[in-house]
Amino acid sequence: MFSRQLFSASLRQAARPVAARQALLRPNPFLSAFQQRLLSDHTKEAIEKAVGSAPVVLFMKGTPETPQCGFSRASIQILGLQGVDPAKFAAFNVLEDDELRSGIKEFSDWPTIPQLYLNKEFIGGCDILVSMHQDGSLAKMLEEKGVLAPLEASPSSDSSGTESK
């Protein structure tokens, strides 16, 4: 009896080869991201080049001038409040390139965008930036890495510390 049920189930499955093929194409929740899709060498090299293009690199949706999501906007605002030097900053719009958009998630093994890199080291997404900003650790890290804009001298005082008129 058991073998008859098994045999009939096999016949039903054989009668639906398209469904079986589609099941093979669906992502398997038991496979790791590495096993599901390998990052192409070309994409990996492009991301490594982008990450190394500046000391502070943000992969975001939109541009710093026109962010396309609230998390990207918040990340830009935090970096601005911290005083990151624009000469040491680069942003990449993942909405312009689908391969970059999916590739950066695999590269960092982080599922969301935006993503911040500091001296080629992945720091985190918006939630991590907000937390680090609030506890002061982001300011300390940015200062240690030397990526903050130099403080401008006040025009109302000279080098001796007295006011000029």
Short précis:
This protein has 165 residues and is of the alpha+beta class. 48% of the residues lie in helices and 11% in strands. Strand 3 and strand 4 (121-124) form a beta hairpin.
**Per the principal axes of the C-alpha atoms, what is the gross shape?**
globular
Report strand %.
5-15%
The end-to-end distance, rounded to whole angstroms, is 104 Å
Q: Outline the biggest β-sheet.
A: 4 strands, mixed
Order of helices and strands: HHHHEHEHEEHH
**Number of helical stretches of at least 4 residues:** 8
The number of E-state strands comes to: 4
The helix-and-strand class reads alpha+beta
- Whole-number mean pLDDT: 79
Low-confidence stretches: 1-31
Helix content: 40-55%
The largest sheet has its strands arranged as: 2-1-3-4
Radius of gyration: 25 Å
Detailed description of the structure:
This protein is of the alpha+beta class. It is built from eight helices and four strands. It has helices at residues 2-14, 17-25, 33-36, 41-51, 70-82, 98-108, 126-135, 137-145, and strands at residues 56-60, 89-93, 115-118, 121-124. It has a four-stranded mixed β-sheet with strand order 2-1-3-4. Strand 3 (115-118) and strand 4 form a beta hairpin. The longest helix has 13 residues, at 2-14. The model is unreliable at 1-31 (pLDDT under 50).
